[in-house]
Amino acid sequence: SQLLSLLHSMWQSLQDSITPYSYFDVPEFLGSSAVEPNDLYRHVHLYLHQSLLSSAAASVSAPPRLTLSLPRGSVAVPSLSLSPNQSLEDSFAGHRLLWTHQADTLQDSLEERRSFSLRLPKRAAAALLGSYLSHLSDKADHLERSSRPRRLYTNSPRGGSPSWSSVPFRHPATFATLALDPPLKTSLLADLDAFAAGREFYRRTGRAWKRGYLLHGPPGSGKSSLIAAIANHLRYDVYDLELTRVSHNSDLRSLLIQTSNRSVIVIEDIDCSLDLTGDRRGTAKSSAAALAASRKRAARKRPQPSISNDSSDSEDESCRNSNDGRVTLSGLLNFIDGLWSCCGEERVIVFTTNYAEAVDPALLRPGRMDVHVRLGACGAHAMRELVERYVGATEHDMLRVAERNDSIQ
Ligand SMILES: Nc1ncnc2c1ncn2[C@@H]1O[C@H](COP(=O)(O)OP(=O)(O)OP(=O)(O)O)[C@@H](O)[C@H]1O
Description:
Elements (H helix, E strand, L loop, with lengths): L1 H17 L2 E7 L1 E2 L5 E2 L1 H15 L11 E5 L7 E5 L5 E6 L2 E11 L6 E10 H26 L3 E5 L8 E5 L13 H15 L2 H7 L4 E7 L6 H12 L2 E4 L8 H10 L4 E5 L2 H12 L5 H14 L6 E2 L8 H5 L5 E2 H9 L9 E7 L7 H4 L6 E4 L5 H11 L6 H12 L1
Parallel strand pairs: 9-12, 11-16, 11-17, 12-13, 13-16, 14-15
Antiparallel strand pairs: 1-8, 2-3, 4-5, 6-7, 7-8, 9-10
Helix pairs in contact: 2-3, 13-14
The structure holds adenosine-5'-triphosphate (ATP).
The site of adenosine-5'-triphosphate (ATP) has 13 residues, from α6.
């Protein structure tokens, strides 16, 4: 048997010396017609585009192709790709791999059939292929995310079938432009990054991949700007859900199902809706909170939000009957953390309020909104940033006021 295994390894070495590589073909389209694109081809294209941009491009023999393409969405993106029959070397786990771009013009047609060919060391191919392709797809996915045009959605008015309409999302606020006290900024960024990288964590723990943020603070304290900064940081779409336009829980569900993965879903001024909850239940709310919410409603001249509460078993039936609104608190809770919250991945749900004390406790319960962010008066550090950015000065009366406030607190 020793002789046999010796012969076997000699035979393998001989084969390896004749054909030491394995080759894999990645065509642009699946099947014979150019209809169904191959996602892996797109990923390889993006991955090599990035490699060509980096210093590795120096090792390419012929000049790469530079094209302007519309890969997804409506924004043209310049893209670098290998010219036909040009190769680019890559290394992974200590092995050298070679990508070659192949382009053949079909007979009797001007159509070009393109594919990438991957060359791997034969002995390592089986162990290498899976992990290399998932490394490549992760990188391509990241690139795709960071270059994709994003949109701001709002839900259609009541009456018709619930749907979203959208415009390009181009809000300029970022964590760099937002003046926040450093510990808050650092912890928010860390939280968002951990969330975005949390696929494995959420899978392992059996939890829906979503995170709830409650932003509270007086008008103008930066809640909307923070939402934009969150969306820009994560490169997510934004769904601005106007609850007053939603007639039924079923419409709420339908809207949720239509939202895409990697999105921020925003419900602003949640306190206005929840104040009605209190009225309808007949339970006494803090008069200050009720006053605050009604003041705000009046100021905004909004239609009456149509949220009611059906989460409590002891709900007064007559109140339920007198309730002409059919989006209920339990519908909203289901939206946040019930079964329906799981029909998608990578969702950040943000509620804003000017009066946290006016928000129904059911929404504030620990675990429901994961992160509560209070945005108050500008601290000295944030004020210094703003003064420098807006006035270009390091001294200002407002800065002294902020410093005095900080020292009193
Ligand atoms: N921390 C901040 N850093 C930079 N700019 C800020 C900050 N906070 C507020 N602003 C500026 O103040 C203005 C109002 O902010 P924003 O609309 O985000 O407040 P808001 O809390 O959402 O207000 P409202 O409760 O009325 O909706 C914006 O122009 C924004 O640029």
